[in-house]
Amino acid sequence: MRKTTxxxxxxxxxVAALAATTAPAVASxxxxxxxxxxxxxxxxxxxxxxxxxxxxxxxLGSVLQEAVAQGAPGALVRVDDGERSYRxxxxxxxxxxxxxxxxxxxxxxxxxxxxxxxxxxxQLVGEGRVDLDAPANSYLPRPVLDSRITVRHLLSHRxxxxxxxxxxxxxxxxxxxxxxxxVFRYEDLIALSTAHALTNTPxxxxxxxxxxFVVVGQIIEHVTGTPLANQYQQRIFTPLKLRNTSYxxxxxxxxxxxxxxxxRPDDASEPLVDSTEQTVSWAQSAGAVVSTAEDLNRFxxxxxxxxxxxxxxxxxxxxxxxxxxxxxxFYGLGLRARKLSCGVTVYGHTGTVxxxxxxxxxxxxxxxxxxxxxxxxxxxxVNATLGGSLDAAFCGTPPQxxxxxxxxxxxxxxxxxx
Length: 418
Ligand code: REX
What we know:
By secondary structure, the protein is of the alpha+beta class. It has 13 helices and 17 strands. Helix 2 runs antiparallel to helix 12. The site of glycyl-L-alpha-amino-epsilon-pimelyl-D-alanyl-D-alanine has 20 residues, from helix 6 and strand 13.
């Protein structure tokens, strides 16, 4: 196993490749292996120890640089492939201080939280404390939902519960400022949803809604009688040694070393808004986990290899249905899947909270996992660009144009019948 602390060969290769594909003679900002971080092997030129196809590190670098060119202050990607780790960064973690990004920084993972909530719930199913096909009302302090909605409908976004966040953030910065320091109870958020009609008959259609996973959080707390934070800690963070992963809701503080988040106003000519500190109470069990690329990669790899959820229940989590017309995007139980341009299917989740876009996916065998982050949001171009990291990491190719996911299925209210 060849070790290097600088990955100088790769650095020059990536920068040279970028210089060749972008106009300026000196690419700025450069995208380089994360020098402070690379202490494990970087890929051998012949790729001898790497499963085929090896990640395309030049393409990964280009993705990060494109994200920054489109307005993200910084971006990072980490691919863990067996014993190997590929880590690339560009831009800044903190624009006021001028601190450069590095792949060890914590960030808000947004909806990747849903997979953590799903794991806790599936463990409760495994313990016989929750029945996936029972009415969700049976596990709530008060039966506030349509009685046809089951726990499985929540985890698969098929309940029809209206997503209150679309209205909450119709106007991006004012919507954010109105809730950034608010603390909601589960019932407050659920009431925002149930004030509206269901978007579909329970079970009849996929319709992504944060409300589903707010209900999941309340079910977890009601069934266990303990805070959700304790359940995440005991069942996931501690056993997997996810030392940089936390659920501190409603604290607004991210501890340790972290990337600041920068929200783009709807008028893109206005300056970015530093959105780092917020309660994320509007999303809590649907979106308030803080983590790192390394921890997310370990989490998804452990999940699909059976380290967290009983085999028969994991199979149900990973049984996915298409949620887009092209049948490249899928949802299981708190888990997304994407069929990539090379035909490989990867499992994981995406996340968007103010200031942070995340992609965290793994192969079906958990051998290769990738997390990509850009520290901005409300910028669909950046989100689509960052999605190109999937092809680069798992197919070993530059992002294929027709697979850049410009049409993110869940960035707007969206219902798929069937
Ligand atoms: C809320 C608005 C986005 C963000 C949202 N986030 O629902 C959940 C999530 C937790 O991560 N969902 C994504 C804001 C889609 C996922 O599953 O991948 N946008 C922003 C606006 C738009 O305010 N007016 O971009 O920061």
